[in-house]
Amino acid sequence: MRIGLYISGAGHVLLILWLLFGSLIGWRDDEVKLRVSDVSFISEDEFAAMTAPRPEAAVAETPPAPAPEPEPTPEPEPEPEPEPAPAPEPAPQPRPEPTPGPTPEPEPEPTPEPAPEPEPIPDPVPEPPAPEPALQDAPRVAPTPAPKPAPEAEVAPERVDAPSPREDADATPTPEVVPTAPQEATTEIVTEAKTAAPTSSARPRVRPQNLDKPTPPKPPQPEPPAPASSAANAVASAVSDAIAGGERDVPQQDAPEGPPLTRGEKEGLRVAVQQCWDVGTISSDALRTTVMILVDMDRSGKPIAQSLRMVGWEGPSQAAADIAFQAARRAVLICGRNGYDLPAEKYGQWRQIELTFDPNKMRLR
Q1: Which helix (H) or strand (E) segment is 294 a member of?
Q2: Scanning 40, 112, 329, 348, which has its CA 20 to 30 A from the CA of 359?
Q3: What phi and psi values does residue 296 have, to the nearest 5 degrees?
Q4: pTM recorded for the entire structure
């Protein structure tokens, strides 16, 4: 399609050269010569391409140069004849598969041996009933029976266990607690009126607070005739006093009443007791149990071990309450070995203290 463009460009170049250098040749032919030119037929597209405006600067119009003769179109060379395709090789015949031999018959499985019969289980021999511990005369009476202490054990009024190790214990060393064993004791006094003995002691009455003005003694009134069971009641009263274990051994007279304990003094006592209150080894039921204990204090600030008693509890069971009471009892005794820091002038206010041990919050009254 660009042949016409090339031809036109070549013609213009020849024309410009002839205009520039044609006058220098110097020969002129006066004879009129006929110009003979070959004409070739072109298509409309080729003609339109030849006559299209060119972007170059317009050249002065000159008569078109004769179109050069088109070059003869070379005849296409004859295609070489394709060589004959070689004959396909014959496909190899598949080898015949070997005929499988006869399948051997499976061997018969061996007959399993019969399992041996289990030996007959002998009948359990009934254990003899445990002999009931014989109550012996002991010099001390306590709510919980205590066995006879070992000869090498130190006899103390109250059993003190070594504190259990805790993972979260402070790094500060604590004084070693020497375990002691209580003196041998029984739960009751064997008398003729044994059946009339009470099963538990009554809660002691709270000491009245208004002791400033003593009340005048009332005239004695004639006592009513004693009932028939007065002897049994007397024995029951004696057993109750013995089980109390010295609850009324604290002197009640000549004790300065003093002002009530301040909130800071109560908080200091609570913190001191809580330092020895170990609840990491008790059961989950005991952790949900709140116990109220009553303790008597001497003038040096030390708790009296025999006066510690549980006056109330709230929780799932009695067993959980006993476990919680023992943990609270150990806390009061261990931390009070050297006496609590309490004001001596207010001894009348703190000589008997009621403590409420609650796993969530320990209260003091």
Answers
A1: strand 290-296
A2: 348
A3: -100, 145
A4: 0.32
Fill in the DSSP letter of residue 91: P
Question: What are the CA-CA distances from residue 339 to residues 268, 321, 347 (Å)?
Answer: 13, 27, 13
Q: Of 58, 57, 67, nearest to 6 (Cα)?
A: 67
Tens of pLDDT along the chain (365 residues) come to 588 889 999 999 999 988 888 777 655 555 556 777 777 778 888 888 888 877 655 444 555 565 666 566 666 666 666 666 666 666 666 676 656 555 666 666 666 666 666 666 656 665 655 555 444 544 455 555 565 655 455 555 455 554 444 444 343 334 444 445 455 555 555 444 444 455 555 566 666 555 444 555 555 554 444 333 333 343 333 333 433 333 334 444 455 567 888 899 889 888 888 888 888 888 888 888 999 999 999 998 999 999 999 999 998 899 999 999 999 999 999 988 888 888 888 888 888 999 898 877 654 44
In the block, tokens 């060589």 appear at 83
Whether 11 contacts 65, CB under 8 Å: yes
- Cα separations (Å) of 58 from 2, 14, 53, 54, 241? 20, 16, 9, 8, 145
User: How is residue 149 written in tokens?
Assistant: 């202490």
Give the residue among 50, 70, 65 at the shortest CA–CA distance from 13: 65
* Collapsed DSSP state (helix, strand, coil) of residue 124: coil
Go through 307-329 and write b for each residue having 16 or more CB atoms within 10 A of its CB, e for each that does not. bbbbeebebeeeebbbbbbbbbb
Domains and CATH numbers, the chain: 245-365 (3.30.1150)
